[in-house]
Description:
globular
Amino acid sequence: MRTECLNHKYLYNAPIVSGRLVSDIADKHQAKTQASWKRPYGVGLLVVGVDKDGPHLYQTSPAGFLYELQAMAIGERDQAAKTYLEGQLTSFPSANRSELIMHALKALKSAAHDDTPLSAENTALAVVGVDESFTVIEGKEIEELLKKK
């Protein structure tokens, strides 16, 4: 992905639109399903990007499908997190940064195994926004947030 972004910047002297980048990734996934001697990629991706149109969340599947979403969870036990996110979806547009982080933690908690509670050792969050660079929240910061919820 980084190489694609650099190539686009070099050729067109402008940053790539996030939807175009993720579409290229989905096309690569889909191309692997066209020939019997090629093995398809076995992973779906959640990709977050910010471009001139604002923030975007995309999901790709191993078959090459591409979806633009407002909230999503993928992985083991993702249905519980999806249910939580769907129930809270209407509150996201008016929520501030800290409220959105708390929603993410609550979604993670709903999908966590009962015998493995969320802790600073097994939890990290990434935040990206229009006027905010990519930030990973972990360690003591995440521990303080886990105490709040």
